[in-house]
Amino acid sequence: MNPVGVAVIGAGYWGPNLVRNFVATEKTDLRWVCDLSLERARKAVGAQSQVQVTDDLADILRDPTVEAVAIATPPSTHASVALQCLSAAAATIRSGWVAQGPRVAEFEEHFADYVGTASGVAVSSCTTGLHLVLHALGIGRGDEVIVPSLSFIATANVPRYVGAEPVFADVDPITQNVTAETIAAVITERTAAVIAVHQVGMPLDLAEIRRLCTERGVKLIEDAACATGSVYGDKMVGVGPDAVVFSFHPRKLLTTGEGGMVVTSDESFAARLRTLRQHAMSLSAFDRHDKAASVFEEYPELGFNFRMTDIQAAIGIVQLGKFDEMIRQRRELAARYGEGLANVPGIRTPVDPPHGRTNFQSYSVVLSEEYPVQRDDLITRLHEAGISSRRGVMAAHREPTFRDQPRGDLPETEMLADTAIILPLYYDMTEADLNRVVDTMASAADGE
Q1: Chain segment 184-240, per-residue pLDDT in tens
Q2: SS3 state at 77
């Protein structure tokens, strides 16, 4: 029996694994890898010179030797969920209303119910959500906003968008989160707000942070970009007096391609955010079209275009219905990682903190001096073994745009930025895949 001619579409996170598997089996003949980035496609192909790369799907369709196509779906999304997302998106397109409308309102309601809070406000990203919250709170020129340096750069960018200055605080080395103590070390009379991040899904220890902010009259905003489904105490992250902002970027467990959600227990604040996100118009486009008579909107203040589309919302609604199962399986995989790496010297694995439960958005391990391979060299070694990994969370204060920014001492931030590595963790990960990562880590520790 002749091998089946195969093409892979998508050379991102999951693509290289598909390439490796198709090349390894005698039953398939990998002909093409297609990706919008030719460089990414070439990296996925590696030394397999017989495999062609393209950024044009038509090349594959014209090739009579291609009998099957494998689509590399996002690793956090199970294939059956992906098919339901496609169906929901198609139904929304057929409805004739694809911009912000009834699906967005439905997603906001479902997400707020899932978290356990009063209101959700869908936005175009977590970054725009944070920007919107700071603007609505009146944070601006002359104000300081305390942020962790150990976070994606968007957290530090947002204060600048409203004219305020970010001030960097250090983090706890175990949770990788800011604490009341690290915030207190850099708080000043000019501090107007704190953006505290639930880093890689690890819940913040909020009680003392909230107490400190209340005593100092400082607003607290939670950046929960990675923390959908994480738990603080006995409640979901997102419950409480603070404005909490989530991300639905493709790296997140729940993704709408791009997108975000602000949740709040203050319904009047939520109403103001909804107005501001749509150019501050007094009546939304959907509401205008729904009226029997002609009505005209007004624009009483400066607003923004930070809207989510109904197509994105439809995709989010589908995933939210499967989300608890996705987290359960992710936590099981994380537990197997912990067991497998327990006897490898020089590796500290993540665990739930005493005050909550993480969703294991990312599996970030920290290498100590006892581990014989430097972090960047380990990333290279894993890549050579066909395993995708990346550095841990960045340190924003090291980037050129923030090198002159006010900050306290940041020893734990710099240690984590230099030694943390994020290992692959995805919904469809098999035990064999996980064991291969563990074995490669252990071999490197043994000097093999």
Answers
A1: 999 999 999 999 999 999 999 999 999 999 999 999 999 999 999 999 999 999 998
A2: coil
Pairing of strands 191-197, 144-148: parallel
The whole-number average pLDDT for the span 153-168 is 97
**What's the fold here for domain 4-71?**
Rossmann fold (3.40.50)
Q: Model confidence over 66-119: pLDDT tens digits? A: 888 777 655 444 555 666 777 788 888 888 888 888 899 999 999 999 999 999
Burial 194-229 (b: 16+ CB within 10 A, else e): bbbbbbbbbbbbbeebbebbeeeebbbbbbbbbbbb
Phi, psi angles (nearest 5°) of residue 443: -65, -40
Contact predicate 398/430, CB 8 Å: no
Alpha helix segments (H runs only) across 122-170? 126-136, 154-161
Q: Mean pLDDT across the stretch 256-264?
A: 95
For residue 60, the model assigns a pLDDT of 83
Contact 105, 274 (CB under 8 A): no
Token pair of 396, please? Answer: 């924003």
Give the predicted TM-score (pTM) of the model.
Answer: 0.82
Domain ranges of the chain: 4-71, 80-320, 326-440
Any idea which fold 326-440 has? Aspartate Aminotransferase, domain 1 (3.90.1150)
Nearest one of 16, 93, 100 to 53, comparing CA atoms: 16
Fold entry, domain 80-320: Aspartate Aminotransferase; domain 2 (3.40.640)
From 219, 252, 291, 322, active-site residue: 252
Q: Is 43 a catalytic residue?
A: no
* Alpha-carbon gap, residue 87 to 193, rounded angstroms: 42
Centroid of chain to Cα 265: 23
Amino acid letter, residue 228: T
